[in-house]
């Protein structure tokens, strides 16, 4: 199933055990073969996210996986082989992928085999390398917007707006015609979300009395919904800005989870990687300039450093470069 120009083995960052960053080692592994509904991708780049940490720790291990495990749910690259039942992408296409189910390994490698349904062509306007860091957070942001289900002209507050999911949610929300109040982290975060089109950009580390006053100045009738990429006391205060009947939607994994109170509905959401959602995501992205903000890039050989960087504060996404 593999093209004759492709070597039999590839360099990969793999787990031989579960634990800290030290359990990830570079090694040579066989290039996976593909089934009729799968594609083989020559990987250009891979996203690095907290879900990779959970996989490394043995908390979220893809079904069907066996050690050594190649992590990496997110990636982008070129399709070099496609199964007989694949019709949505073709050999030669530049694609991005979000695949939580990947028993044949992930994107921390020179090649990856995944079900074609998790792959989509890289949309116009997104650099191919950056696309590897986008999929899971972008699909999760889209699911969050679906969950709050607002109409054009409504006010949406995004808490954690300068993070991996948040900065993508700002852009997708503006494409849906929403007014966006972006509560970001620090001066750099505020500058980022301002560049990305937020109508109001605020520092979540600032004085909350002032932050709430500025929100009420912008949306005197209250915000219609909050998308929360983080929890805690700051989020609790921000819910004071909600209109009666407002919604707080929080991404899966946010701790502590926000609690319902009179007049406020709380809903959880998670991303879905499916042909329909990938198509919707691409249509929104191609509606205008779209930025996948990369805080730092690491070569595959520095994957341990990338996982250590995950424990620090940064805006946007981390990226492994493979090709």
UniProtKB/TrEMBL annotation:
It comes from the Bacteria. Keywords: Acetylation, Cytoplasm, NADP, RNA-binding. GO terms for cellular component: cytoplasm. Pfam families: ADH_N (PF08240), ADH_zinc_N (PF00107). Signal peptide: none annotated. It is found in: Cytoplasm. Residues 19-320 form the Enoyl reductase (ER) domain. Gene3D superfamilies: Medium-chain alcohol dehydrogenases, catalytic domain, NAD(P)-binding Rossmann-like Domain. GO terms for molecular function: oxidoreductase activity; RNA binding; zinc ion binding. Homotetramer. PANTHER family: QUINONE OXIDOREDUCTASE (PTHR44154). This is NADPH:quinone reductase-like Zn-dependent oxidoreductase. It comes from Micromonospora jinlongensis.
